[in-house]
Amino acid sequence: MFRNALKVSASEAILQTLAPFSIRLLKIAHPLFLQFCLLSRGHHNLKTQQDYRTLTLSLLKYLLVALTMRFYSLYHMIQHTIAYSSQINLLVNCSIGFKNDWKSALGVFRWAESRSDYKLTPDAYDMIVDILGKMRQMDKIMGLLEKMRQDNLVTLNTVGKVMRRFAGAGKWEDAVRMFDELGSFGLEKNTESMNLLLDTLCKENKVEQAREIFLELKSHISPNAHTFNIFIHGWCKIKRVEEAHWTIQEMKGHGCRPCVISYSTIILFYCHQYNFVKVYELFDEMEAQGCPQMLSPSPLSCVI
């Protein structure tokens, strides 16, 4: 079934490719037809019908050879195009056509992977990982990750996608395990990868778990402003705004200056609570800290 689908797609591609050349083929046939007419009129003294038939067959053979050579050239051009077509186009079409049908998407991917003239990139693997993760096919993902690990194709983006899918499926411990195993994929535990894990957990409302992990990691992985902004957003998301305020103070203690993102997250929370007294208090604090208040659009205007 899959091969038939590919054949149909290839046939459609060939027809679409040949269509622009139909005019060119007519340009070949037209002068040949004129030559036939002129030769026929020039040989009006041909005595028998057999003579006309011989002349006609000769011209038709010439026309057939010319058209065959042109089609042969086009055929090889098309074959070359199909054989070396972009893998990104192939897998983008795969994700569009099969984004809710992981079996078909995986079938296309396996076919592309088996081709000797394809060199799948980490982006291509990430695409199929995303499709499988969306359909909660975690076992398939882990098998694919092992293959990627052997070929040194795992990137931090790949790990991030897998962690988000685990956390979204309620398996946040597996997301943490992915972070712990970064070294086996040739990746480093650093501020960027730590922030990726913390952000994944906070977006799934696992802020307390993220906090515990951060306390374990901060002794050997330095946080940055983005680390604390992740927690500010997380605490506000689960409606624990006091912890968000405390995080701003912790942020300052680590030498990171709160930015407009830090404050606007809390301001937006208070706006949704219609607590505009707190909103203006934060505006005053921002002014005192020398933090710009111009937001586009501002949290206040979003609520209004």
UniProtKB/TrEMBL annotation:
Belongs to the PPR family. P subfamily. GO terms for molecular function: mRNA binding. This is Pentatricopeptide repeat-containing protein. PPR repeats lie at residues 190-220, 224-258, 259-293. Keywords: Repeat. The keyword ATP-binding does not apply. PROSITE patterns: PPR. It comes from Prunus yedoensis var. nudiflora. The keyword Repeat applies.
